[in-house]
Design goal:
104 residues; mainly alpha; Arc Repressor Mutant, subunit A; 5 helices; 0% strand; globular
């Protein structure tokens, strides 16, 4: 399967072209082995995007994971996506690169 159009940094140009197969391909490119917690974060991000038409701030995703995994997991998002929320999680979730956020 070929990826839909991406920008020069590898973010999908149209988030509506995203599906889980595409997410898996992007995760492979980012050297992320997608596990249950990765998918939970990505699916939460997609649900948030569907409701608000904007990528969720990292604190929303962290709060979601903490509710599911417990308060000790408040930094789980950074363990799941070690090169950064925007650089990896947003890209795998099919979000456009948020303009005001760094890629770190």
């Amino acid at each position: 399967m070929q990826l839909p159009d991406t920008d020069e940094e590898g973010y999908l140009i149209d988030p509506l072209t995203w599906n889980e197969a595409i997410a898996g391909q992007i995760a492979e490119q980012e050297n992320i082995q997608m596990g249950e917690d990765h998918w939970d974060a990505i699916r939460f991000m997609r649900q948030y995007y569907a409701e608000h038409q904007v990528a969720p701030d990292v604190r929303h995703v962290s709060k979601h994971l903490a509710e599911r995994l417990g308060p000790a997991s408040r930094n789980a998002i950074f363990e799941l996506f070690p090169y950064g929320y925007v650089k990896q999680a947003c890209k795998i979730a099919g979000m456009k690169r948020p303009r005001a956020w760094s890629t770190g």
